[in-house]
Amino acid sequence: MDVRLLTGTKDLERYDAWVKAHPMGSLWQSIEWKTFQEALGRETRIFALMEGAQILASALVVIDRTSFGLSTWDIPRGPLLAEQMNNGQWTMDNAVSTLLEQITTDARKDHCLSIYLSPSKQLSIFHSPFRITPSGRHEQPQATRILDLTRTEEEILRQMKPKGRYNITVAEKNGVRVEESQDVDAFYALMKETGGRDRFGILPKAHYETFLKALHGSFLFLATAPSPTPLPRIGGGDGGGGVIAGLLGVIWGSNGIYYYGASSYDHRAFMAPYALQWAAMRHCKTKGCVSYDLLGIAPPDAGEDHPWHGVGTFKEKFGGEVVTYLPEQQIILRPMAFHLLALKRRLWK
Asked: Regarding the domain with residue range 2-136+328-347, which homologous superfamily does it belong to in the CATH classification?
C-alpha cells in the first residue's frame, strides 16, 4: 500500500467513480471541480492511498499561489476515506495519517504556508500528533439547508415557510419572468450592485464566466420584470434588458447546488430572488436531482454577527433540512510567514 499522485487517464477514471460512489463524495472533491479550478489557473493534485487498484483514502488538493513564492493548499470537503478497511493493518486513523503525511511532505517542498481541510465528518486524526486547529475561514459553510426534491412540487412548496411561498406568488403576480441565460455581463452588473450594497467582496467577472463555461452542470438564470416597467439596460447579451436578479448554480450527480445570487435593490418589491430559487429547484428536479443545496447559512448556534446570518434568514424561508459540518481545519506549516502574511493582509486590505 502506498500514497500515489493520480494523473493518468485510468487512474482519474477510477478516482471519478470512487468519488461519485462515496457517501461523502461531493462536487468539491470531484473531477469536475478539478477541471474548473484548473480553468481558473490554479494547480490541482489528487492524492490517493492505494491497495493495488483500490482507493482507501483520497484528497483533491487545490493550490493557491500567494506572495513571495509561497502557497496554500486546500482540501475542500475532504479527505475521503473508505467506509471499511479490508486489510487488518489499516484503520481509518492510520489511513488518513498516511495520506496527510505524504500531502504535508509535498506541501513543505512547495513552500506551503498552511493546509486547509474540511472533511464532511469527524476524523480521528484530529486527536493525533498533527497540529490541526480551526482555521476561522468561511470558505466551506459550516451549515447549510438542503431541500428534498423527490417530493412533488406541491409538497416542496408546502414545506416552505409561509413567507417563502407568498413571495414566490408575489413574483408570479408581478409578472417576473425567469429564463436560462449565458449573459454573464448582466449577472456581473448585478453582482457589483449587490456586493456594494451588502458590503461583501465579489470575484472578478472572469470567475463567474469560467464557472458557467468550464464547470460541467452549471446554469445561469436571469429574472426580468414586465416590459412596461422602466428599467435600465444591464449587460449586453441575451438577458440584457430589464434584468433585476440572477442566480448561478450547478448540478453535480443527483444534487443541485445554489452558488451565487444577485439582485437589484430598486426592484426588490418584485421578489425576483424567490422566483429564481423556485425556478432553480424545478430545473434541478427535472434534471433528476434528489436534493437542492442552498449552500451556506450561519450555524444554528451562531449569533447575528456571523457573516452569513442575513443570507441564512433569506434561505430559511425555503425550508429544507439544516445540515451541519465540522469547522474548517488547518495545518500551519510555516507559522512565522503565515502570521506575517495574515498581518499584511489585515493592514492593507
From this structure: Gcn5-related N-acetyltransferase (GNAT) (3.40.630.30)
